[in-house]
């Protein structure tokens, strides 16, 4: 009985277990700038282990494979990301490309976001150019998705894929980053581009660097009470032993 009491108490104190990127929408684009130097930003709603490699491209998806003519980039994390973290990607159209965490490397082609219309995919896979094992997020600045650009990705426009008006030079999420009880509850806020994004057809560099404030989940009062009881249980167990 004492062992069970201890395990329950510790489970309550540790809260959420470590999680990886497993589903579309576990990460989401929150910044896009097609005016040189190109830049972007995304948030992850799950913790991500150091050493993980994420890929992104401005090539089109044709429903079965990547088209060619644009570029592929990879980001390998040099440290773990906690859930709610924001990653800023800068100077993506140059050899001096950087990230707020980890290293960005060209995986082929020429990455250069277009201010007239373009698309940006974030995904996991065995390589940048192979069929992704998981599409995480996508964004386009063409006013709508072309045929097959979301086919077979598991992404849905207005939920895990976002559409900006045609000829958008830059856009950034300006909605809430605190107040939701679950990090996943911010995804509908991000998907509400018309309300929670600021866009420009002017100089997009004025939007950069993008806000790197983390997204925070605020536990419900009942959850806090449960954690308090768990802590009390652990205290009483220690007193008894």
Description:
- The chain is built from 4 helices and 12 strands, in the order H-E-E-E-E-E-E-E-E-E-E-E-H-H-E-H.
- The protein is globular.
- With 241 residues, the chain is an alpha+beta fold.
Provide a quick synopsis of the model.
With 241 residues, the chain is an alpha+beta fold.
**Individual helix count:** 4
Number of domains: 1
Helix content range of the residues, please? 10-25%
Described by strand count, sense and barrel closure, the largest sheet is: 6 strands, antiparallel
In whole angstroms, the N-to-C terminal distance is 12 Å
- What share of residues are in beta strands? 25-35%
List keywords for this structure.
241 residues; alpha+beta; six-stranded mixed sheet; 4 helices; 26% strand; globular; disordered N terminus
List the helices and strands and how they pair.
Blueprint: H1 2-14, E1 27-33, E2 39-44, E3 53-57, E4 71-76, E5 86-90, E6 98-99, E7 103-109, E8 119-124, E9 134-140, E10 161-163, E11 170-173, H2 186-191, H3 193-196, E12 197-200, H4 221-240
Parallel strand pairs: 9-10
Antiparallel strand pairs: 1-2, 1-11, 2-5, 3-4, 3-8, 4-7, 5-6, 8-9, 11-12
Helix pairs in contact: 1-4
């Amino acid at each position: 009985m004492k062992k069970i009491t201890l395990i329950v108490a510790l489970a309550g104190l540790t809260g959420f277990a470590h999680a990886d990127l497993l589903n579309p929408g576990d990460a989401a684009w929150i910044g896009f700038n097609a005016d040189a130097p190109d830049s972007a930003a995304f948030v992850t709603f799950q913790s991500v282990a150091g050493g993980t490699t994420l890929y992104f491209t401005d090539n089109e998806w044709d429903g079965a494979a990547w088209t060619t003519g644009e570029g592929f980039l990879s980001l390998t994390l040099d440290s773990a990301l906690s859930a709610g973290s924001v990653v800023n990607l800068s100077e993506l159209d140059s050899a001096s490309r950087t990230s707020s965490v980890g290293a960005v490397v060209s995986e082929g082609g020429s990455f250069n976001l277009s201010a007239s219309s373009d698309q940006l995919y974030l995904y996991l896979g065995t390589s940048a150019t192979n069929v992704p094992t998981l599409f995480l997020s996508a964004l386009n600045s063409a006013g709508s998705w072309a045929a097959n650009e979301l086919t077979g990705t598991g992404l849905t426009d207005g939920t895990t894929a976002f559409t900006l008006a045609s000829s958008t030079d830059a856009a950034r999420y300006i909605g809430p980053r605190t107040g939701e009880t679950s990090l996943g509850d911010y995804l509908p806020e991000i998907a509400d581009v018309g309300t929670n994004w600021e866009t420009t057809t002017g100089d997009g560099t004025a939007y950069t660097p993008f806000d790197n404030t983390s997204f925070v989940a605020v536990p419900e009062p009942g959850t806090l009470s449960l954690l308090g009881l768990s802590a009390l249980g652990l205290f009483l167990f220690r007193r008894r032993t």
